[in-house]
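User: Please predict the structure of the protein below. I'd like the answer in structure-token form so I can feed it into my own downstream comparison script.

Assistant: Understood. Taking the following sequence of 225 residues as input:
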Amino acid sequence: MRYFPVNLDIRDRHCLVVGGGRVGARKAGALLQCGATVTVVSPVISPPLAELAGKNALSLKQRPYRPSDLEGMFLVIGATDNQTLNRQIHDDARGRNLLCNIADRPEICNFILPAIVRRGDFVVAISTAGKSPAFAKHVRKCLETQFGPEYGTLLNLMGAIRARLLADAHEPEIHKPLFEQLIDANLLGLVKNNQVDRIDHLLEKVLGPGYRYDQLMRSTQSPQE
């Protein structure tokens, strides 16, 4: 097994995308979604990237790549159709011990990006170790029909319950059987069908008085929401 599966926290980390086309736009968008501070370098910029730059969502350098662009970066993604340039990006990043991914060239990557099914903070990653991105995409499409938005909602609810239990000075080791009871009682199905009364009944039965679905879900929302 060549690859070590890991989830990276890239919030506020400086990440570089070299390439301003469709692939570069997709990679930059994925990085932004995870909270990264993104810089894109490319002489030609696609409309989606120009729009993001216009909203100050990312930093744009509309010119050819320079090795100095790697200074201060946590990771770099090469998304150009110039294989000589892609190799240079890899070599420059390797010399600086940076995380580097070159799109569709796993042999010159020190990390690869899996196909993703995302439902809020619920994430399923599919990897073929770079052997068949097409098959990973096929599996992703299959899983997207299996995992609906209720999985993200359930995860938010579980997180709110956990925070409430910790705030009430519950010992963490007693949480596991409580969550197992909720899952075994088909809480996911209740959430999927928005059966709030039955959810409240189950929460009270397992957790005690004061645990209400609407109240817990409101606690997961940010102030601007």
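That's the full token string. The beta strands are 14-18, 37-41, 59-61, 75-78, 99-102, 115-119, 122-126.
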